[in-house]
Amino acid sequence: MAYLISCWASSILAKRFVLIIVSAVLCSCSWPRYPSAWPPLVETRDRCPKLSGVYDNLDEEKRLSLTSIFNLPFPGTELLSSPVMISGVEDGVLEVTLWSDGRLVAKNRLVADKKDFSCEDGWVELGTTGFTGPQLAGPYGKYTRLSAQLDGSLVAKKGFWAVGLAYLVVPLGTSEYTWHRFKTRNIK
User: Fold this and answer.
1) pLDDT tens across 62-100, in order?
2) Beta carbons of 54 and 185 less than 8 angstroms apart
3) For the segment 105-159, what is each residue's pLDDT rounded down to a tens digit?
4) For the purposes of burial, counting CB atoms within 10 Å of the CB of 69, is it exposed (0-12), middle (13-18) or buried (19 or more)?
5) Sheet strands (E) in 59-169
6) Residue ranges of domains in the chain
7) Burial of 80 by CB count in 10 Å (0-12 exposed, 13-18 middle, 19+ buried)?
8) CA distance 5 to 8
9) What radius of gyration, in Å, describes the C-alpha atoms of the chain?
10) Helix/strand/coil for 4
């Protein structure tokens, strides 16, 4: 009889453990939709969108800068209001420059053939993958996808995903992304 009670108790613990795992995985993901208040994205049949233009360095909510997306040297907070120019995407070379008072402050040149970025379905994607540890041992990925809106603004979908074992015991997975909008800038 003690054996039956022991088996029954361990099966309850196993069911609770599975329920905790499933709940953790389901609760760790967030997928916000494209903001309905924003203008629609430019529809293109090309793999790469046309992103050439001049944009605000900070997104509308002041949470993300283009200098951080494109790994430009951090110019200091006084230059976060400076414009960022993007050119070239269509020919496989993406040039990003930061300007202040008519002078070049920082520049980055990304080449598709060197796997600096890729294009798919009207989005430019920049990303990295790797292996996490020690709290969550497993693969992860970070990415930023860029496209254009009908009003000329630049849209960024910034995301992260990871799967693995927490402390090499509990299987977990997570993924999330956020939307950012950089308005077009007129330079005189």
Assistant:
1) 888 888 888 876 556 666 778 899 998 777 899 999 888
2) yes
3) 888 999 999 999 998 888 999 988 888 777 778 899 999 999 999 999 999 999 9
4) buried
5) 83-87, 93-100, 103-111, 118-120, 123-132, 136-148, 154-166
6) 1-30, 31-182
7) middle
8) 5
9) 22
10) helix
Tokens of 176: 């999330």
Amino acid at 127: G
Burial class of residue 182 in the structure, from the number of CB atoms within 10 Å of its CB (0-12 exposed, 13-18 middle, 19+ buried) = buried
Closest CA to 145 of 131, 160, 132: 160
Residue appearing with tokens 């990871």: 162
Q: What is the dihedral sign for C-alpha 39, 50, 93, 185?
A: negative
